[in-house]
Design a protein that fits this description.
- The strands form 3 sheets. The protein has a 5-stranded mixed beta sheet, with helices on one face. Strands 2-4 form a two-stranded parallel ribbon. A two-stranded antiparallel sheet has the order 8-9.
- It has 7 helices and 9 strands, in the order E-E-H-E-E-H-H-E-H-E-E-H-H-H-E-E.
- It is elongated and about 60 Å long.
- Helix 2 packs across helix 4 and helix 5 packs across helix 7.
- It has about 210 residues and is α/β, with parallel strands linked by helices.
- It has a single domain, classed as Arc Repressor Mutant, subunit A, CATH 1.10.10.10.
- The relative contact order is 0.13.
Length: about 210
């Protein structure tokens, strides 16, 4: 009598805000990532995982096992952040885990982000948040305010930073478009209307000693 083999369970994702996790080291050659084809292979893997995420899902892409990478490979792999910000992947989020003690990799990712005029959300080994690429001073101030408060509406941001209503709304929408903060809609009990609350993508933690700041 034949027996049906047990189904293999999918490895559980990391605890916390992430729905799924992708370990890139398994797609490298001994931690080395060189060439456009290698980068595009990682791009495709991330794309497939993002497509499978539920609404509000977040994917953690673990680059901490990558020891060296060429700019060409990183440019190809990290270009997936642009696809993420299209309507096709609305309300899905992507964060990269990087060992920020690896200065060569940090500098390479930073260069790719800046040349592409992009912002790449990163967490270090201790879970502290960083942003590779360039944010304006206004965007940094807004992101810090959201992270410190744990969540802000446009009205609350306006009151905290002394902004005009349009400026507060535009700042929050911009950070949400970059997938650096989450957004949820809730009812306003007094007026009976609706409003958005913007929350941190990852709960803030202090940077570990020796880790890179935002």
């Amino acid at each position: 009598m034949s027996r049906t083999p047990p189904k293999r369970k999918r490895p559980a994702g990391p605890a916390g805000p992430f729905t799924d996790r992708l370990d890139v080291s398994q797609m490298t050659t001994g931690g080395m990532l060189f060439g456009g084809e290698a980068g595009h292979r990682i791009y495709r893997a991330i794309f497939r995982r993002l497509r499978a995420l539920p609404r509000e899902g977040a994917l953690l892409v673990d680059l901490s096992g990558v020891r060296q990478a060429s700019n060409q490979a990183l440019k190809e792999a990290l270009s997936v952040v642009d696809v993420l910000r299209t309507a096709k992947f609305a309300e899905r989020f992507l964060v990269f885990r990087v060992d920020t003690r690896n200065r060569d990799l940090v500098e390479a990712i930073e260069m790719v982000a800046r040349l592409g005029r992009d912002v790449i959300p990163v967490i270090d080994r201790g879970g502290a948040r960083h942003n590779f690429g360039k944010l304006t001073a206004a965007e940094r101030d807004t992101l810090k305010a959201v992270e410190r408060a744990g969540g802000l509406t446009s009205r609350e941001l306006r009151e905290r930073l002394g902004l005009l209503p349009s400026a507060a709304s535009n700042r929050l929408r911009r950070l949400h478009h970059l997938r650096l903060i989450r957004r949820e809609e809730r009812a306003v009990s007094v007026s009976g209307g609706r409003e958005f609350v913007y929350r941190p993508l990852v709960p803030p933690r202090p940077a570990a000693r020796g880790e890179r700041g935002s």
